[in-house]
Amino acid sequence: xxxxxxKMDYVNINNLEIFANHGVFPEENFLGQKFLVSAKxxxxxxxxxxxxxxxxxxxxxxxxxxxxxxxxxxxFKLIETVVERLAEKMLLNFELLKSIELTIKKPWAPIxxxxxxxxxxxxxxxxxxxxALGSNMGDSxxxxxxxxxxxxxxxxxxxxxxxxxxxxxxxxxxxPDFLNACTMVDTLLTPxxxxxxxxxxxxxxHRERIIRWGPRTLDLDIIFYDKLIFEDDELVxxxxxxxxxxxxxxxxxxxxxxxRHPILNKTMTQLSExxxxx
Length: 278
Prior knowledge:
Layout: E1 10-20, H1 26-31, E2 33-42, H2 46-51, H3 60-73, H4 79-93, E3 99-106, E4 118-125, E5 127-135, H5 140-151, E6 156-161, E7 165-167, E8 178-187, H6 191-204, E9 219-225, E10 230-231, E11 236-237, H7 246-255, H8 268-277
Antiparallel strand pairs: 1-2, 2-3, 3-4, 5-8, 5-9, 6-8, 7-8, 10-11
Helix pairs in contact: 7-8
């Protein structure tokens, strides 16, 4: 996982030439054209530099072949789609790859005007997120277990989960105790895509939003996403008031004691100790 502010090394490929069949016009799909692919790939190569072992870095010959095969074996109308799908596939298939800046150029773009290239560049990477889980209806342990299983997919890797803890209800207190936990994940999803996925998992667990802070089969909340500070009508990161919620802080302290709140500038250990003192 690429930590914000951490120095990253790069393996670069510049203008790999590939003849493939992508484009809006039928002749582009049928006749094909030349594409130039460049990739700036974030990877920690210090171990490779010290060991002189190819297994500790990205094999750029293998990378070039992978890109070529992907470009030749698929057909898309938009190079926006090509570059998005290729970046995702590379991040999923090369374990050492942490981030990628990918550019695809069309030197023969059919626009009828003098042009060197038309191109698309995107930057994509793995992101570290922390998610809180809670349940106080039915078999709460089963709901948390199944929620974690549903979370763990190709674009979300569950890395570490706290012990489950029983806590009193927060806000609306006239309801059964909760079973709570926090989990640490790496994800390729954006914050809103991750939120949508959490809502899908809650829906699978028959979550109903009737009373604010009311009983629920499964509640999933994004607590942190990298060191992001973000707010809109649907999502607030870091999660509002998490520093006053023992059912978030104590599980967070268990799995990431030294993770620092990007606004409060205190670690999970420091925040949990503050809460305990109160």
